[in-house]
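Appendix B, example 12.
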Amino acid sequence: MATIKDVAERAGVTVTTVSRVLNNRGYISEETREKVHRVMREMQYQPNEIARSLSRKKTMILGVIIPTIAHPFFAELTNYIEKYASQRGYKILLCNSRMNQGKEKEYIDMLTSNRVDGMFMSSHTLEVDEYKKLKQPIITFDRRIADIPYVSSDNEQGGIYAAELLLKKECRKIAHITGNLGLDLLSNQRTDGFVRTLRAQGVEPIVIELGPDVFESEGYEQVITSLLEQNPDIDGIFTSSDILAMNVIKVCMGKGIDIPGRIKLIGYDDIEMASLVTPALTTIKQPIEEMAERAVHLLDGLIRGEEIKNENVLPVTLVERGST
């Protein structure tokens, strides 16, 4: 079995250089990096990850706990987290909590026992003390948990943008479909900004709140169908996610309701599918890639013992397409 010394000798470099390539640390020319990787492949060299972890007191593994990878927003977010974590030499362990307390606790215990260097949390079902007592650094998404640093989009401004556009389009019977407002989520500020802006103009919106399984789409169509049947004069809808908005399009098509002719529709997130549906979806764009990059940068900083900002709020933009 080849050793790191064997790789160094064949590549014509020092053991230290091979170690730097393996750990993605220090300056190494691209030519040298490629040569070392080529020799490792030729010799079928496999580094001893346990030994490496012990020597540097780091596993170079990050835990990612999300509600569900099946939701396109979290799929895109996780994709970018992995991209930027990999650039810094980290690998990720991905966990689906399904917003279940028991599963989330099990995953946190698993990540802790595997000595991950840090965690990204986009699920928050446990008591605050459960997170505060963890030794690993944590960054949260759209969750404010005690004094743990977080990354989010400007949710309140997103709600304001949506309300202003529907008012501009002369909508007056407006509905808003959102997640569970009983949960302590920064994303609920979308509702705050939206409702406050409409009320300032004398418009009282219909707010439909989903149940605890907000990321499970099975019941969306029933909720939307009931809303439209009970309020046939609705002329504007703002949903708290693009997936919800796409379900509105599906239900309206089935009922022969024209979008945007009869109902103007706005989503939130700007996932990749938003521009592919018909009509193309007007939405509030979260900078998903930038949020992931910022989160990886912050968590890496915490792991290195650096001081970082607790509140990291990135701007949103209105992307107007065919649904308005």
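The chain has a mean pLDDT of 88. The first strand starts at residue 61 and ends at 66.
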